[in-house]
Amino acid sequence: MFSLDRGWLYGGRAVPGCTDPGFDDSGFERVTIPHANRTFPWHGFDDEEYQFVSVYRRHFTLPELPDKRRVFVDFEGVMTAASVTLNGETLGEHRGGYTPFSFEISGRVRWGEDNVLAVEVDSTEREDIPPFGGNVDYLTFGGIYRGVALRTVPDTFIENVFAKPADVLGEDRRVEVRCFLKGRDAPRAPSRLTAELRDGARTVASVSREVKPGDGDSAWDLILDEIGPVELWDTENPKLYDVVVRLQQGGERPDEYVARVGFREARFTPEGFYLNGNHLKLRGLNRHQTYPYVGGAMPARVQRRDALILKNELKCNVVRTSHYPQSRHFLDCCDEVGLLVFEEIPGWQHIGDGGWKDLACRDVEAMIRRDWNRPSIILWGVRINESQDDHDFYERTNRIAHELDDSRQTSGVRYFFDSEKLEDVFGMNDFDPDFIAPPRHPLYLNTEFAGHTFPTKPIDNAERTQEHALRHARVHEMLGADDRFAGGIGWCAFDYNTHANFGSGDRVCYHGVSDIFRIAKPAAGFYRSQCDPQEEIVLEPGFHWSVGDQSDYGGHGEGAIFSNCDRLVVYVAGERLAELFPDRQRFGNLAHPPFFFSELSGTAPWRRGWGELRIEGYLGDEMAVSRTLSSKGADGRFGVEPDDTELLGDGIDATRVVLRVTDEFGAPRPFATGAVTLEIEGPGEIVGENPFALFGGVGAVWVRTTEAEGTIVLRAKHPVLGTREVRLQVARVPSDTV
Question: Where are the domains of the chain?
């Protein structure tokens, strides 16, 4: 395998002849993959500016290999259609931006000579390609935004492996390994197929058999049994094993395929969801894969960070990949940290013609064949999000899923209750803020709520940001009251860019519990508070500290605090105000109900003069955590916080750098402003706006490395609070490209 992620030439808009081998590309921009065909401000831009046909070119020389090998070029994702040529010869077109595709170039590549791989990328919203054809509430952006590689294999090779753990809770636990072989010619020598189950370097079990593959495709089954006790994969202990399959053909170098698996049983039942025989109420959020500035064109580290945020910061146990298959790097991290996944095909309400449906069915197959070994994935989403019923179409998508993978259930997401249920699990977007309807079907999962019915910006007043958080809390309270609900996946994790006919007039849907930069709003505090105190002690006010931000000066309502403590003690200006306890009367079905100040109980702090607000959280008799909110009404600190301080100098790696204004105690200042000026030195570049105007007192840029080692120095200057500096170490990366 040779990476092709470095060394591309980007020419902008395609022109006649731009894919010809002799075309003059000396003026093209040198770029690395992933790449966006255009970069934008984080909001307020026109999406039609990325909807054009662009051209990418890649020169490479493939070294002579000691034995005869077949060669494929593999694309992980190109948005939205890709027409690919090699040395001026057309390889084909792939339509669809979310699934991988490959072309064989064995008879076309020039060994030891310069080759030109050219890709014309059509990033327009073509009606013949899902999800397009109707209104779509998200942007797709454009470019070669996922990785590219050259793969060399023998004449007969392992094309894919489905390693399916079976009977994992019984005595006959095993791994059923189906090996998919592709052959160009019938092997002249005997062939042997071997599978091993490995725990790190230790071989747990192995099996071998002779095979006689012929021309074309074939599938062969191996059973890894008598494996003895194993560690189960679950949300708290996501234990992973490797299944290593080798095809040995005579004295040739063996072909090898590695599939990472976990032993787990995941089932939706009329009594809820069960993981490894244990009832688990699902609590999660939907995720769009796009980021500010570059859409989906972020590298592995950044994609993985979203899974870490969902699991470790938002304390979710499930995520839905709304509304398309997402980056393998994101899913890799879900496997590794124990974040369950509901993965679905591309689409949003619209169902197209027969050709469109054929592509959607192809997407079902491509999604499953790419991800069927992942223990994190518990549902295949085989219905276009919020579409009308289409019996024949959805009978077909379900059949494809069940034939490919009989170990997982299917689901589909709709917004009306009298929809035909062809999937195993009835997915429902129920946005009623006051009452979640009882399940009308067995195996029921609430797949969206809150979100677009109550968009909330970081700069909104205290009443709205608190109500936003409480709407999420109320839904999870209602879902917790009935075991027939498998759980709920809120809309949504992060704000996202959208079309002009959606969102808030600036091409952003402010539906997230975190903003577009992945920075928490108060609603994130609710999700965070639902974890066990042994994991983390949480105390998050659902408001910012102000005396005059309620509808009536001084306030008449409640102040919510999200915490997993047993009790809270509140002080204002050093004077003890109240002792608060979880509100189990209204939120008794939550693991950790919110706490409330109340006008009725006389504990509203804005009625007791003015001063610093200090909240102490207790577990038993011991204080476990304390938070202080300033009464000064002044910006106190300016912080510059990178997610990572060690990067790879491959021209691809990147990390987020958060810009944040707080009070003197570190609490948010949601009305803080200021244009932050950025300067960078060393082997890196800024992805984002410079200067950056803070929004809600926060914001972020990303720092991407260049193809060099050294130290990146990033300086950020706030017009009032001064300059901060961070240093990032960049390690040299040997060339892995051709």
Answer: 2-146, 156-252, 269-529, 539-629, 637-732
Q: What is the pLDDT of residue 554?
A: 43
Q: What is the pTM of this model?
A: 0.94
The end-to-end CA distance of the chain, in Å, is 10
At 188-228, the pLDDT tens digits run 677 899 999 999 999 999 999 998 877 678 899 999 998 98
The secondary structure of 174-222, three-state, reads EEEEEEEEEECCCCCCCEEEEEEEEECCEEEEEEEEEECCCCEEEEEEE
Residue 408 clears pLDDT 60, i.e. is over it: yes
Decide if 515 contacts 696 (C-beta within 8 A).
yes
Confidence of residue 600 (pLDDT cuts 50, 70, 90): very low
pLDDT of residue 64: 77
Distance CA 603, CA 251 (A): 81
CATH classification (class only), 637-732: mainly beta
Q: Which of 344, 386, 423, 540 is catalytic?
A: 386
Phi, then psi, of 410 in degrees rounded to 5: -105, 160
Give the max Cα distance, the chain. Answer: 90
Contacts of 77 (CB under 8 A, 6+ apart): 97, 98, 99, 100, 144, 145, 146, 296, 327
Answer yes or no: 343 catalytic.
Answer: no
Task: Say which residue the tokens 């996501």 belong to.
Answer: 238
Q: Domain 2-146 sits in which CATH superfamily?
A: Galactose-binding domain-like (2.60.120.260)
pLDDT digits 0-9 by tens, 112-170: 899 999 999 999 999 999 999 999 999 999 999 999 999 999 989 999 999 999 999 99
Architecture of domain 539-629: Sandwich (2.60)
Which residues, listed in sequence order, are joined to residue 283 by a DSSP beta bridge? 488
Percent helix, strand and coil across the chain, each to the nearest 5? 15, 40, 45
**Extended beta strands in 288-407, E state:** 318-321, 340-344, 377-381
CA torsion angle 311 472 508 352 (round to 10) = 90
Q: Are 655 and 688 in contact (CB under 8 A)?
A: no
What distance in Å separates the CA atoms of residue 728 and residue 474, rounded to the nearest whole number? 42
Letter string b/e over residues 235-247, b meaning 16 or more CB atoms within 10 A of that residue's CB: beebebbebbbbb
Neighbours of 377 (CB within 10 A): 22
For the stretch 512-542, pLDDT in tens is 999 999 999 999 999 999 999 999 999 999 9
pLDDT of 729 strictly over 90: yes
Q: How far apart are CA 661 and CA 667, in angstroms?
A: 9
Residue 556, pLDDT score: 47
Catalytic site includes residue 104:
no
| Nearest-10 Cα torsion for 37, 38, 43, 49 | -90
Reported as a pLDDT band with limits 50, 70 and 90, residue 607 is low
Asked whether residue 1 carries a pLDDT value surpassing 90, the answer given is no
* Catalytic position from the list 159, 423, 448, 467: 448
pLDDT for 553: 43
Amino acid at 607: R
Instruction: Report the CATH superfamily, name and number, of domain 269-529.
Output: Glycosidases (3.20.20.80)
Q: Is 385 helix (H, G, I), strand (E, B) or coil?
A: coil
Taking each continuous run of H as one helix and of E as one strand, the counts in the chain are 7, 46
Structure confidence at residue 66 (pLDDT) = 58
CATH of domain 156-252: 2.60.40.10
Q: Provide the residue count of the chain.
A: 738
Token couple for 350: 């619209």
DSSP class of residue 41 equals -
The whole-angstrom separation of Cα 616 and Cα 626 is: 4
156-252 with 539-629: one CATH topology?
Answer: yes
